[in-house]
Amino acid sequence: MATGISTLRLWLLRAMYALISVGLGLTIWPLILTPPVSADEGSVIHALLGALAVMAALGVRYPLKMLPLLLFELLWKVLWIVASALPLWAGDGLDAYGTETFFACLMGVVLVPLVVPWAYVRAQYFQAAGDPRRRPAQVPAREPT
Fold first, then answer.
1. Residue 142 is assigned to a structural domain of this protein
2. Cα–Cα distance list, 50 to 14, 41, 80, 85, 95 (Å)
3. What parts of the chain have a pLDDT lower than 70?
4. In the chain, where does DSSP find H-type helix?
């Protein structure tokens, strides 16, 4: 498949997926495998991040097909920083958890844009024709004569 994406860029994407998968695998999966004390927002966040780790592992094999995952990763981190971390930091300041999370998210906000092939994203997700809204009508098979 000729995509115009360099081999180096594909390996950088793979490295980013591996970093996400291994990082979340080491920090989140032990929490998932430990029986929860309650079904609170923490358990929901752990489940979401655990699924993200598994999907990122797929990105190691399919770096271009899994690009929406990196875009999701970038978007949620930017949203959290802008909507939560910065207002708190400008006000009373961040607590220890907020500070640690802020720097972890900031790392993603810096690294993900460096590895994403933005011209490919623009061509595939913003300029390409969308999928049809309904299935095309089936053409009846001809009887052999």
1. no
2. 18, 14, 18, 23, 24
3. 1-2, 139, 145
4. 7-27, 29-33, 41-61, 67-80, 86-90, 96-115, 118-121
* Structural domains of the chain, count: 1
CA diameter of the chain: 82
Tokens at 95, concatenated: 């607590």
Q: What percent of the chain has pLDDT over 90?
A: 72
**pTM confidence score:** 0.84
What domain range is 28 assigned to? 7-126
Closest CA to 105 of 20, 47, 11: 20
Decide if 132 is inside a domain: no
Q: Mapping DSSP to helix (H, G, I), strand (E, B) and coil, where does residue 10 land?
A: helix
Q: Are 87 and 77 in contact (CB under 8 A)?
A: no
